[in-house]
């Protein structure tokens, strides 16, 4: 093995994906562009992972030189992929954070239909946990706090009108000019 591949790195997560009962992709984010550069290679990898894990009761799998931790819920399968040398506990903490955060956002109804209805929140959760393969957060409460803040601030400021003539918000007239 190359000594450079054994050096510690912040880039611990290679991919995150969520599949349905049939192994169809609902969400996927690959953080290593050299790992599976094309969509076809990614889907083949996901199909292989699904075929190996959908009937197993384990939480960890090793496939194609990757460490894969996974969890299932009703009709969904959640996967976090790291390199073969990656710490399984770190990957599992990311998986648990993802699952717990989504469980809270989906009001404990972690199933395909609810996930698809709330995809913007799902993407926000994934982006708060992992950025470019670097684990940013593994505490679901912190993730939920950041995501709720972002969702609330977008709703609160998304429709605020500013009147450029009077310089007031929501087109209110300036009472001093009356």
TrEMBL record:
Work out whether the entry's keyword set contains Acetylation: no
Q: What is this protein called?
A: Coatomer subunit zeta
Organism equals Parambassis ranga (Indian glassy fish)
Q: Which Pfam families match?
A: Clat_adaptor_s
Q: What residue stretches are annotated with the AP complex mu/sigma subunit domain? A: 12-149
Q: Which keywords, in A-to-Z order, does the entry hold?
A: Cytoplasm, Cytoplasmic vesicle, ER-Golgi transport, Golgi apparatus, Membrane, Protein transport, Transport
Q: Which InterPro entries match?
A: AP_mu_sigma_su (IPR022775), Coatomer_zeta (IPR039652), Longin-like_dom_sf (IPR011012)
**CDD domains per record:** Zeta-COP (cd14829)
GO biological process: any one?
Answer: retrograde vesicle-mediated transport, Golgi to endoplasmic reticulum
């Amino acid at each position: 093995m190359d000594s450079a591949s054994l050096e510690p790195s912040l880039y611990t997560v290679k991919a995150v994906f969520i599949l349905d009962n049939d192994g169809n992709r609902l969400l996927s984010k690959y953080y290593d562009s050299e790992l599976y550069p094309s969509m076809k290679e990614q889907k083949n990898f996901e199909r292989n992972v699904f075929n190996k894990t959908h009937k197993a009761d384990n939480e960890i799998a090793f496939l194609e030189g990757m460490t894969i931790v996974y969890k299932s819920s009703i009709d969904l399968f959640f996967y976090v992929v790291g390199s073969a040398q990656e710490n399984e506990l770190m990957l599992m903490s990311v998986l648990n954070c993802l699952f717990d955060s989504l469980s809270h956002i989906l009001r404990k109804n972690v199933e395909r239909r609810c996930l698809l209805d709330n995809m913007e929140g799902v993407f926000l959760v994934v982006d708060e946990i992992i950025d470019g393969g670097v684990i940013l957060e593994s505490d679901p409460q912190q993730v939920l706090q950041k995501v709720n803040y972002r969702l609330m601030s977008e709703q609160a400021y998304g429709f605020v009108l500013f009147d450029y003539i009077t310089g007031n918000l929501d087109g209110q007239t300036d009472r001093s000019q009356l």
